[in-house]
Amino acid sequence: MSAKILITGAAGFIGSNLAENLVDSGFKVIGVDNFSSFYPRKMKERNIALLKENANFQFIEGDIKDLKRIKSLPDFDLLVHLAAKAGVRPSIENPQDYIDTNITGTHNLLKICVERSVKKIVFASSSSIYGNSKHLPFVEEGYEYEPISPYAFTKRSCELMNHTYHHLYNLDIINLRFFTVFGPRQRPDLAIHKFVRLLEAGEEIPMFGDGSTARDYTYINDIVSGIKSSMNYITENQNVFEIVNLGNHTPVKLLDMINTVAEVVGVEPKINQLPMQDGDVDVTFASIDKAQKLLNYNPQTSFKQGVKNFYAWHKQIALAH
After folding, report:
1. How far is the C-alpha of 224 from the C-alpha of 246, rounded, in Å?
2. What is the pLDDT of residue 149?
3. Is the Cα torsion angle 41, 44, 46, 50 positive or negative in sign?
């Protein structure tokens, strides 16, 4: 597959890791990011510092909500749409922001793809769509979805919008439902990153609920591998519309996660138990049967190894500053 790839959210956690992998594999990549104030710009700048030195990478600062800006982008052959306003809890406080960025922004990109006859799209969806479904593990088809946060409903809305555009304009689209991605460059608001900082500072770890909630943590390299396989799949096939889980098929309980992170950092955790928070689901658990069949997806990195890799990166960044 020789193509020019447009990655939205290219300076973020998943986007920068994917862009690096693609550029190293010989692809030409156009990266777009708006450096949202959700976390410090300097972190995102650091993510793409090396990429910017590569002749196969072109970076453009811009917001997917800005249709005029999106229309000015160079030509591309395939879209990997990762840009989104993330976070379950903040979405409850300000749902309109999530509707504007996630739904309107995605619509802008779909419009551009139709105008330019770009037929191939990989879309970053989310496991949060499943809400508190009692059907475990979560499978892509056959059950009603009951999102319990504005973030989740925007992602489900985008999947439905993608289907409409697939039907009307023959766009080939794979919607990838990511399950709690972690690893080097992880956003600072996410649990593992946050807990490492608290443990190092000797502060208490906030634990919402009794520690029995669980997440299907999926290592960044496995997610990148799944995205690349999806790109290959839509390039080689026609009339594609698929929804596919990318998870690890191994939920980790919150208390076990805290203890694993504490063990890797080498600190005894002090836990502050707090009530469950609105919008948080009890468990995420991916069925990856479809990903295995369709994409030959096979996650390689255990949770503990992934935490070790994250902590090594974290220490390296600390030494650099």
Report:
1. 10
2. 94
3. negative
Name which of 38-42, 54-58, 301-305 the model is least confident about: 38-42
Cα separation, 267 vs 186, whole angstroms: 21
Per-residue model confidence (pLDDT) at position 2: 58
Q: Whole-angstrom Cα distance, residue 289 to residue 298?
A: 10
Sign of CA dihedral 101, 86, 248, 250: negative
Which ranges constitute the DSSP H helices of the chain? 13-24, 41-47, 67-71, 88-93, 95-98, 105-116, 150-169, 191-200, 220-236, 254-265, 289-295, 303-320
CB atoms within 10 A of CB 208: 15
Catalytic-residue membership of 169: no
Residues 255 and 52 sit within 8 Å (Cβ to Cβ): no
Q: How confident is the model at residue 1 (pLDDT cuts 50, 70, 90)?
A: very low
pLDDT tens track for 107-129: 999 999 999 999 999 999 999 99
Contact (Cβ atoms closer than 8 angstroms) between residue 125 and residue 142: no
- Distance, in Å, from the CA atom of 130 to the CA atom of 110, rounded to the nearest integer, reads 24
Q: How far is residue 114's CA from residue 100's CA, in Å, rounded to a whole number?
A: 20
Query: Which position among 98, 151, 219, 233 bears the catalytic label?
Result: 151
Helix axes 303-320, 191-200, angle to 10 degrees: 60
The amino acid at residue 236 is E
* Alpha-carbon distances, residue 12 vs 78, 175, 276 (angstroms): 19, 19, 28
The rounded distance, in Å, linking the Cα atoms of 200 and 267 is 8
Q: How many residues does the chain have?
A: 321
- What is the DSSP annotation of 136-148? SSB-SSSS-----
